[in-house]
Automatic annotation (TrEMBL):
GO terms for cellular component: cytoplasm. It catalyses: cytidine(1402) in 16S rRNA + S-adenosyl-L-methionine = N(4)-methylcytidine(1402) in 16S rRNA + S-adenosyl-L-homocysteine + H(+). Specifically methylates the N4 position of cytidine in position 1402 (C1402) of 16S rRNA. The keyword Transferase applies. The gene is rsmH. GO terms for biological process: rRNA base methylation. InterPro entries: RsmH, SAM-dep_MeTrfase_MraW_recog, SAM-dependent_MTases_sf. This is Ribosomal RNA small subunit methyltransferase H. Belongs to the methyltransferase superfamily. RsmH family. Keywords: Cytoplasm, Methyltransferase, rRNA processing, S-adenosyl-L-methionine, Transferase. Its EC number is 2.1.1.199. Gene3D superfamilies: Putative methyltransferase TM0872, insert domain, Vaccinia Virus protein VP39.
Length: 279
């Protein structure tokens, strides 16, 4: 697997996760294990990381890494996954809700509007029956409007839905290029919102996050820390609301990437880290 993901906000997490030798930690979004390996530096030699990812490519890649147990699963089931593995004394749980570089550049699943030749699937879990082509070709107009409005906050969602309905009457929307031709939109900001909306819908991202946060908080030891990195306001709102209901908030203002990090890794630009301590 090429296109290794560069972990974001590592410097900030090193301080805020407050991990010590012998602690255990969970990386709920394992990917290439960048954050998980950083956690290991602090908890070695006896501490362990439980890593969860819904994409089997990530889990297979991490198999056999010392002191990291990679589990295929959705973080919405984090409590069951932790219980099944008998994982205890959890001092930190991290969610990094960004897009994996591999998903965009290596998966061939149509996550990017810059790759018109790819099939428009957008599943992070390739086993999932739901995909973007299915949504685009079968959802009623009202559902398309809802997706673009709620998950993309686009200005005229009904116009997009109309264009899609018209295009799919003539020809099935199969690839990223088919969608781009149907929409006739070139503006990158608008396209980013449209692609974000479809991705959120395909992967049930907001439901999974809403379900996972209380379960993760429940699994932490007292004094343990829950850290979430979000990348857009829809996610951040869920995290902020949840954090306001319990524990001690350690990030009054969310932490963001330094200019130096943004220059080196542009995907850190919109990252916002919030950390909550269980008291
Ligand atoms: C931005 S990457 C995480 C980066 C990683 N922590 C690192 O060290 O750089 C996000 C990963 O989370 C996974 N993911 C997204 N939603 C998930 C969910 N609901 N359950 C499990 N894994 C998920 C994706 O498959 C992807 O590999």
């Amino acid at each position: 697997m090429q296109e290794i993901h560069t972990p974001v906000l590592v410097k900030e997490l090193r301080v805020l996760l407050n991990l010590k030798s012998g602690d255990n930690a969970v990386d709920a979004t394992l990917d290439g294990g960048g954050h998980a390996r950083m956690m290991l530096e602090f908890i070695k030699p006896n501490g362990k990381v439980l890593g969860i990812d819904q994409d089997k490519n990530m889990v297979e890649k991490m198999a056999g890494e010392k002191n990291i147990t990679a589990v295929l699963g959705n973080f919405k089931d984090i409590d069951e996954i932790i219980k099944k593995r008998g994982f205890k004394k959890i001092r930190a749980i991290l969610f990094d809700l960004g897009m994996s570089r591999w998903h965009i550049e290596g998966s061939g699943r149509g996550f990017s509007f810059g790759r018109p030749e790819e099939p428009i699937l957008m599943q992070m879990d390739a086993r999932s029956q739901k995909n973007a082509a299915l949504i685009l070709n079968t959802c009623p107009e009202s559902e398309l409007v809802r997706i673009f409005k709620e998950f993309g906050e686009v200005r005229a969602p009904w116009e997009l839905a109309k264009k899609i309905i018209l295009a799919r009457k003539a020809k099935r929307i199969y690839s990223v290029g088919d969608l781009l031709s149907a929409l006739g939109i070139k503006n990158k900001k608008s396209l980013a919102k449209i692609f974000q909306a479809l991705r959120i819908a395909v992967n049930n991202e907001l439901e999974a996050l809403t379900e996972a946060l209380p379960k993760a908080f429940g699994a932490l030891d007292v004094g343990g820390r829950l850290a979430v990195i979000s990348y857009h306001s829809l996610e951040d709102r869920i995290v902020k609301n949840f954090f306001s209901t319990r524990g001690k908030i350690l990030t009054k203002k969310p932490q963001t990437a330094s200019q130096e990090e943004i220059t080196k890794n542009s995907s850190s630009r919109s990252a916002k880290l919030r950390v909550l301590e269980k008291i």
